[in-house]
Amino acid sequence: MSENPTIFADAMLDASLLHGVLRVRLGQVAGGSETLVPAGQLVVPLAEMRALVAALDNVLREADARLRAGGAPIAVTDSIGGGAAIARPRPRSYSAAAVAARGRSVSHPPPSAL
Predict the structure, then answer these.
(1) Which residues, 6 or more positions from 9, have their beta carbon under 8 angstroms from its beta carbon?
(2) pTM for the whole structure
(3) DSSP alpha helices (H): ranges in 3-95?
(4) Segment holding 3, helix H or strand E
(5) Contact assessment for residue 27 and residue 12, using Cβ atoms and an 8 Å cutoff
(6) What is the pLDDT along the chain (114 residues), one digit of tens a residue?
(7) Half-sphere exposure of 17 toward its Cβ, with a 13 Å CA cutoff?
């Protein structure tokens, strides 16, 4: 089994929605400068994004609570968020025309731009 790539990101460069898929371009600070350079892209079906954000929010809240309670480090082996299955909303289909009608971006940069 191949290892999944790890992306270190300092910021979100931009996001776009096309055909029901949210693309979030991530950036990192280049060297010692304040300049952000592309680091990678997170691609998530819009129907799954709410559950993903909720899970990340739970992890952040638990990490914050642990740090406030005495600075207990969070080990890689800890089961932050309980490891429980995430309740997923019913998948929806979004056409480019429907997304454009709502005023959202329907274009995204080509992968070569990263």
Answers:
(1) 26, 27, 28, 39, 40
(2) 0.57
(3) 46-68
(4) none
(5) yes
(6) 468 889 999 999 999 999 999 999 999 998 878 889 999 999 999 999 999 999 999 888 988 888 888 866 665 444 444 444 444 444 444 445 555 555 544 444 444 544
(7) 18
